[in-house]
Amino acid sequence: MGITVIAETLEENLARIRDGIDRACARVARETRTVRLVAVSKTVSREDAAMAAAAGIRDFGENYVRELREKRPAAPDATWHFVGTLQTNTARHVAELADFVHGIGPGKAVERLARRAEASGKTLPVLLQVDFTGERAGIAPEHVGALADDVGSLKGVALAGLMTLPPMPERPEDARPYFRRLRELGEEVRRTHPGAVELSMGMSLDYEVAVEEGATMVRIGTALFGERPLG
To answer: For the chain, which domains are there?
Structure first.
């Protein structure tokens, strides 16, 4: 299934991305180890996921339950992140398959995720998705505090931080205001939820800017695996 990547190309791409993270960290006096590279392997073949794991990738992100289920055995020692839209009808599968869940919003989906995780003896770290545009999934920034309190009260999940998807930038710098605002929101949330230390922001086009603004996770697909079909 999925696209196939040549091993040499993947290793070259990975080295380039790591160099970019290193440079961004150096510019703001951060340690590289404070940034996790989440390889978004949507539509990538199971074999290529295994190849990426062999090249040193320790975190993978999947948008769909089906692909998460099929590819997780290719890198069983990695941390698998669910980075798609959490839905009520698939939340129980996400609870069983994922190690980390991005994109949490209000509603029954997170409640079902928490119940299934608790029943399985798991405590899943989750990230609240913040929408600064009014056009994407997630919660408006002014409601983040209330949602943090709600999610923080649930058993089976642990509030780990925030994430955002800014508009697709024409230039990397275009994303900076959104990343900066997420960092500021994260500081506000940590006053009452000190464990919410993660900021998942930045993708292939703008991850260096995200690191400069405090990202602890960058979600990178195209820059690592190459262009993939839409959908």
So the answer is: 7-225 (3.20.20.10)
